[in-house]
Design a protein that fits this description.
CATH superfamily of one domain: P-loop containing nucleotide triphosphate hydrolases
Strand content: 5-15%
Strand order of the largest sheet: 3-4-2-5-6-1-9
Number of strands: 24
CATH class of one domain: Alpha Beta
CATH architecture of one domain: 3-Layer(aba) Sandwich
Shape: globular
Number of helices: 34
Mean pLDDT: 80
Largest sheet: 7 strands, parallel
Oligomer: single chain
Structural class: alpha/beta
Low-confidence stretches: 511-543, 557-564, 716-733, 1046-1066
Radius of gyration: 38 Å
Length: 1066
């Protein structure tokens, strides 16, 4: 229905152009600026550090714009951009005090980077102890009363900085109004279509209003300090890894749609939104830093716009999420593998951009986008290339135990009791209740068993051929041997498991069924916490923390450590880390060259571990994506990365650990060095489902990032790196029907692209015909105007200029007399000839002196006029008259344009490129008078050149008119033909085959004994299509041959007759 509606819109030219005009007036009405920071001189910056062009451009952009998102590839140097931006704006007086919020473990690292770039900077790095309840008030006063260049604070402590009360009240009312509007929309939708729409629940709506009020009342009550950020002097906010605040609450009437994100949002996101709202309302500055602006859901782009450009959303009427979604997104109905990874189900997913050009323009209006590809254009060896140009997929066989745990159907199609599929079937349609099985717990178990069956049954025996950890260990060992001479290092990412002990304490005696736990004395943990919160007075007496401080610290400690995967991993006695380590040691890698990221308990220990890895003392580091993501700079000797299990939002950060600058092995051999990336999956398990999720999300993210370069308006058919995820999904399922489904889906997308391109070509022909017809009228009028202009030209004996005074619009005539040419005096010249020659020279001298006086007066008035032009309002000004023309000037802050008009017809105006003077882009925001740089002598030469080239311009127009006439004839013929798409039957057959195959897969999921007999209709259609094409080519060649034979036959008798006539004539 949607496709038919689009076709209906585009088929009628008038309808199409009318809607295009509405769109252009509302959305497509802005031009993106370009930023060139090459001229930046960063005062106080460490001259030993070199900034790359994209970094200087980004710094220059942050100076000019109020809200910026640095969407730079992981490892592209965002931190340095932010630091330099902060200090340069402080130097220029644009900002006073910058607040920088960074991930908890990076505060010290940011402080070090800051002082490394600006040794004389005045920076406050907020320590954990500064944020205790007892010290907070002192900290807030310290921030408010000191002239810091920057204050660096951890993400979890950002909420401690109170927000202005009026902003909180304002947002509370706004959320209540949005909730009411949403309810009204649902009521209206139900009234219009009661069969297809669910009736809104009034009781649930009232409960929602109560929840919103309670949430904001709690925020107001929680405001612990009488000092809020408005009183601290903060006028610039920088948020590092801003995607961690993506869960901003929003209202929507869309139900049962996947891909919308978390509608309820998080407290940390709401707090940040309050702060950005205050900054926007007071014309302050905001900068977000992220390499993954879209991490989980396409709706995150909407939230990013709410944070950084709320006014742009308001101007376009897109404040409400549903309006934004209908304008830029599309809900796609598609089949996806279910959690069992054995069968397909229909899913409604918000996963397609329908107007990517408009959204891309809105995004790039505040986003500074830099990818590795962008940098590689200028520096081909900026980062290592990936081995084979794509990850290495490693698929491990599924054991019988895993199969039984996931679910095996009997002859009646019933799955074994207690299996994942059986449990999920029992949970479907039921509400989650505490203590009962639910879909989430089923999914968690499905992920666990895909990683290692021993996470379900610690006492189970797993053979090597069914072990992902063994497969990873084997690849690690092979790379270890290959790079032994250069001490190559490797990273292994393991998400759904946690080591139970230090890497050097893992028992090596038992390889299978081994699991040990390092028990830590609870009293020791309590003592450590007590000591960290205690302090001493000036007499050396211990000041113990209060009970409330201890409780708050425990809550904060708990909040910081919550990582779902890690918490789940702690509940199992078996751990994959130790299993991998044992395999590695058994193969031959010394245990002291293997480490777990969990070995490092403090930031200092972590940095020490990273140094050992960069020196090659530790060759293998195993860790979770959460602990080994942002801030893990261990790339100096990295040769391979292994992804044993991962979530979609973690992939880019994981691979960013290696695909970044600073690898010395790559620097030593940039042409041949390749980084290996391994991805592991167990066939026919949740791994295939997880790779499908990655495929879905990477599709939207990659397509959006590259859309503006490719000029695409729809992104459904564009697929780059995500195709590798498709392959992985197909390999992991092990089902040939699913592999065939992946191929069919790709072929359908390819054919749909061709079909759309075919239709677009027809629409293009229609557009071209209309445009050329309009161009014809325009060119004819322009030719007439230029001929009129040319006819008014006067070539005077002397140079005559009438110059206007812009102050009072009075004019004055100047005539520069042409000096007479004097021939050289002959050697035997007479006395009379000598006197005449001398007299002429004196006359010329007098004329030259008079001309000089006039010329000086002209130059003075001309300079005065241009000075007035710079400061006057933007409009046309009559500047002078010259050679029969009136010369006008029009100035903007970007340029001044001069034009020629006939004296009697000011409506005709002609300007050439050489009559436009542009301002220096680096001076746009200064008081620099670029008009003062225009000198009269050069200006007069440009005028003469423009006048001389008028006949040439007229000839060009005549040629253009002739070309346009030919184009009109060509496009008229093409539009009238209206050919049908020759491969439409093949496309329809492909879609039929795909539907048939999906139906078969659904039946296979219900009936184990069902054996599909899939006979693709599309293959037969394609075969016939190719046969027709070959026959057509043969017919054409035969026709040409017959034509040639007929021609020869017709020619032969004529030739004979001619010869006969010739003979007879003889």
């Amino acid at each position: 229905m949607k496709e038919a509606f689009k076709d209906w819109i585009y088929k009628d030219y008038a309808r199409r152009t009318h809607l295009e005009q509405i769109y252009n007036d509302t959305f497509n009405n802005s031009v993106l600026k370009t930023y060139d920071g090459s001229q930046l001189e960063l005062e106080g910056f460490n001259h030993h550090i070199s900034l790359r062009p994209h970094q200087k451009n980004a710094i220059f952009r942050t100076i000019q714009d109020r809200a910026v998102c640095l969407d730079h590839q992981v490892g592209a140097g965002k931190t340095l951009c932010a630091i330099a931006s902060c200090m340069e704006q402080k130097r220029m007086g644009l900002v006073n005090k910058t607040l920088i919020a960074v991930p908890n473990h990076l505060t010290k690292q940011w402080g070090d980077e800051f002082y490394k770039a600006y040794p004389n900077a005045n920076v406050l790095v907020v320590d954990k102890k500064d944020t205790t309840e007892k010290e907070r008030e002192l900290l807030f006063n310290q921030i408010a009363n000191n002239n810091y260049d920057a204050v660096i604070i951890a993400h979890t402590h950002l909420e401690l900085l109170s927000n202005p009360r009026e902003i909180i009240e304002e947002l509370k009312e706004e959320e209540l109004v949005n909730a009411e509007k949403n309810f009204e929309r649902q009521e209206l939708a139900y009234e219009n279509n009661p069969r297809e729409t669910k009736k809104p629940n009034e009781r649930a709506f009232k409960n929602k209003l109560d929840i919103i009020r309670a949430q904001y009342d709690a925020i107001l009550e929680k405001q612990g300090s009488h000092i809020d950020i408005s009183q601290m002097g903060i006028d610039n906010l920088i948020v590092d890894e801003a995607h961690l605040f993506k869960n901003l609450a929003f209202e929507t009437s869309m139900e049962k749609i996947a891909g919308l994100g978390n509608q309820q949002g998080s407290n940390r996101a709401r707090d940040l939104y309050l702060k950005t709202r205050y900054l926007h309302q007071n014309d302050k500055k905001i900068m977000f830093l992220t390499g993954t602006p879209i991490a989980n859901s396409l709706s995150e782009m909407y939230h990013l716009q709410r944070y950084l450009t709320p006014d742009a959303l308001k101007e376009r009427g897109l404040e409400f999420f549903d309006d934004w979604a209908k304008t830029y997104g599309e809900v796609v109905n598609d089949f996806e593998l279910d959690t069992s990874a054995q069968s397909y189900k229909m899913v409604n997913r918000f996963s397609k951009f329908s107007d990517v050009q408009g959204l891309s323009t809105m995004y790039r209006a505040f986003a500074d986008i830099v990818s590795n590809d962008d940098i590689l254009k200028h520096n081909p060896h900026f980062v290592p290339k990936v081995y084979g140009d794509k990850p290495i997929n490693v698929v491990v066989k599924r054991s019988e135990e895993v199969a039984q745990f996931i679910g095996v159907a009997d002859e009646n199609g019933k799955y074994n009791e207690g299996s994942i599929i059986d449990r999920m079937q029992k949970c479907e349609g039921k509400k989650n209740k505490k203590g009962q099985d639910n879909i989430l717990s089923c999914t968690t178990d499905a992920r666990k068993v895909a990683l290692d069956y021993r996470l379900i049954d610690p006492n189970a025996k797993v053979e090597k051929e069914f072990s992902k950890s063994y497969a990873m260990a084997k690849n690690i060992y092979e790379n270890y041997l290959e790079t032994h001479a250069t001490k190559g290092t490797q990273l292994g990412f393991i998400g759904l498991s946690t080591p139970k002990t230090h890497s050097q304490k893992v028992s090596l005696e038992v390889l299978d069924n081994a699991h040990e736990t390092e028990n830590k004395n609870p009293l020791d943990e309590a003592q450590e916490l007590l000591e960290s919160l205690s302090s001493y007075d000036e007499n050396g007496n211990l000041i113990a923390p209060s009970k409330k401080e201890l409780e708050n610290e425990l809550k904060e400690k708990e909040a910081k450590s919550v990582n779902l995967d890690e918490e789940l991993a702690k509940s199992c006695s078996f751990d994959v880390y130790s299993d991998v380590l044992r395999h590695l040691v058994q193969m031959g890698i010394p245990q002291n060259e293997i480490a777990f990221i969990h070995d490092a308990k403090t930031e200092e220990q972590k940095q020490d571990l990273f140094k050992k890895l960069n020196r090659g003392e530790v060759r293998v580091l195993l860790g979770s994506p959460a602990k080994m993501g942002v801030g893990t700079n261990v790339q100096e000797r990295l040769v391979a990365m292994h992804e044993l299990d991962c979530r979609p939002d973690e992939l880019l950060q994981m691979e960013g650990r290696g695909i970044r600058q600073g690898n010395i092995l790559h620097q030593n051999d940039p042409e041949n060095f390749r980084m290996k990336i391994y991805r592991y999956a167990t066939e026919k398990t949740y791994d295939s489902r997880m790779w499908q999720i990655i495929e879905t999300k990477s599709k939207g993210i990659e397509q959006f990032r590259n859309a503006h370069k490719l000029g695409l308006n729809e992104l459904e058919d564009f697929n780059m790196g995500s195709s590798n995820a498709s392959e992985m999904k197909a390999e992991a399922t092990g089902n040939p029907s699913i592999i065939e489904e992946v191929k069919l889906r790709a072929e359908i997308k390819s054919e749909e692209s061709k079909y759309k391109a075919f239709n677009k070509e027809h629409y293009f022909n229609e557009e071209s015909l209309k445009n050329n017809a309009s161009q014809w009228d325009y060119l004819k009028q322009e030719l007439k105007d230029l001929e009129t202009l040319q006819s008014s030209a006067i070539i005077p004996t002397h140079t005559e200029i009438k110059l206007y005074d812009l102050k009072n619009e009075e004019s004055k005539d100047y005539e520069l007399i042409k000096v007479k040419e004097i021939e050289p005096l002959k050697e035997n010249a007479s006395m009379s000839e000598e006197l005449t020659h001398k007299k002429l020279k004196e006359q010329n001298k007098q004329i030259a002196e008079q001309n000089k006086e006039k010329l000086d007066a002209i130059k003075k008035q001309f300079a005065s006029n241009l000075n007035d032009l710079f400061f006057n309002e933007e409009r046309d000004y009559k500047l002078l008259e010259y050679k029969g023309f009136v010369v006008n000037a029009y100035k903007t802050k970007y340029q001044v344009e001069f034009s020629l008009s006939p004296k009697d017809n000011p409506n005709i105006a002609y300007s050439s490129n050489n009559m436009i003077y542009k301002n220096d882009t680096n001076q746009l925001f200064s008081s620099y008078n670029f008009c003062a740089e225009i000198k009269f002598d050069g200006f007069l030469k440009r005028l003469d050149n423009a006048i001389i080239k008028l006949p040439e311009k007229i000839k060009e127009l005549e040629d253009s008119i002739e070309t346009t006439k030919e184009n009109i004839s060509k496009y008229t013929r093409l539009v009238e033909q209206k050919p049908s798409y020759p491969r439409l039957e093949y496309l329809q057959a492909l879609k039929w085959d795909h539907k048939t195959l999906i139906d078969d897969l659904a039946k296979m999921g219900k009936d184990r004994d069902y054996k599909p007999v899939f006979n693709p209709k599309s293959k037969e259609v394609l075969k016939n299509l190719n046969a027709e094409k070959r026959a057509s080519l043969v017919d054409e060649s035969v026709t040409e041959e017959v034509k040639e034979q007929a021609k020869q036959e017709a020619y032969r008798p004529m030739k004979k007759a001619a010869n006969d006539d010739y003979d007879m004539g003889m």
